């Protein structure tokens, strides 16, 4: 990757995540365009570009990114509500990184090599990873639905859809571990999950729930392992 792009990304990461206190974020959300923290935040980004490049010759780059950053953050502060805050956070970062790439291309004639998108291996990897997300969750739900234990009135409430997302994360991790030839990490992941689950299952003394969790875990791991090994054989 080009050194200039790396420096621009580094400046953004430091400015947005290390040098922006939560108090500043709250102030921007509350006072919007009247917030002095908004303009101070942008100034920090401009100064950081001079710092990472160790030169004042990049003033055009710094000024351009500063103006774009101000526009993006200003629009975010204007349109952000409690309901869309999470979506706007990710949209905000996508716009920032996209603007950095555009500025890098304009000022440093940089170009990204995306030829890998034309390779069969890339699409096989994408297909394998995507299969282990929602499709596998649905397949597992259909398979183990008949063994779903009845809800107990005194059972603790879990986070909404937490089990589904935990399963997706563990399968994707297994996929990555196997494709990078770190099979030992799969065993570590299974052991870690067993330790966290052991306490809950032991306290409930529910044999059906224990068996249900065990079936779901082994099925999830099994599908992930088979998918990863098939993917590995296809791209070999």
From TrEMBL:
Pfam families (UniProt xref): DUF3307
Keywords: Membrane, Transmembrane, Transmembrane helix
Leader peptide range in chain numbering: none
Domain of life (superkingdom): Bacteria
Residue ranges of the TM segments: 38-56, 62-79, 86-107, 122-144, 172-192, 212-231
Alphabetized InterPro entries for the sequence: Phage_phiKZ_Orf197
Name of the protein in its database record: DUF3307 domain-containing protein
Source organism per UniProt: Pedobacter terrae
């Amino acid at each position: 990757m080009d050194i200039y792009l790396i420096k621009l990304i580094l400046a953004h990461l430091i400015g947005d995540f290390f040098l922006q206190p939560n108090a500043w974020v709250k102030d921007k959300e509350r006072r919007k365009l009247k917030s002095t923290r908004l303009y101070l935040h942008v100034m920090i980004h401009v100064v950081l570009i001079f710092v990472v490049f160790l030169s004042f010759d990049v003033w055009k780059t710094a000024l351009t990114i500063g103006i774009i950053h101000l526009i993006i953050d200003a629009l975010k502060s204007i349109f952000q509500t409690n309901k869309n805050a999470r979506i706007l956070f990710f949209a905000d970062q996508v716009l920032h990184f996209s603007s950095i790439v555009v500025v890098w291309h304009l000022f440093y004639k940089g170009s990204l090599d995306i030829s890998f998108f034309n390779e069969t291996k890339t699409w096989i990897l994408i297909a394998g990873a995507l299969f282990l997300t929602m499709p596998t969750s649905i397949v597992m739900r259909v398979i183990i639905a008949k063994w779903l234990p009845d809800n107990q009135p005194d059972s603790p409430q879990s986070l909404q859809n937490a089990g589904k997302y935990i399963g997706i994360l563990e399968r994707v991790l297994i996929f990555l571990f196997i494709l990078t030839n770190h099979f030992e990490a799969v065993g570590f992941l299974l052991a870690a999950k067993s330790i966290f689950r052991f306490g809950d299952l032991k306290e409930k003394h529910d044999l059906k729930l224990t068996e249900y969790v065990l079936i779901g875990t082994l099925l999830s791991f099994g599908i992930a392992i088979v998918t990863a090994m098939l993917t590995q054989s296809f791209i070999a």
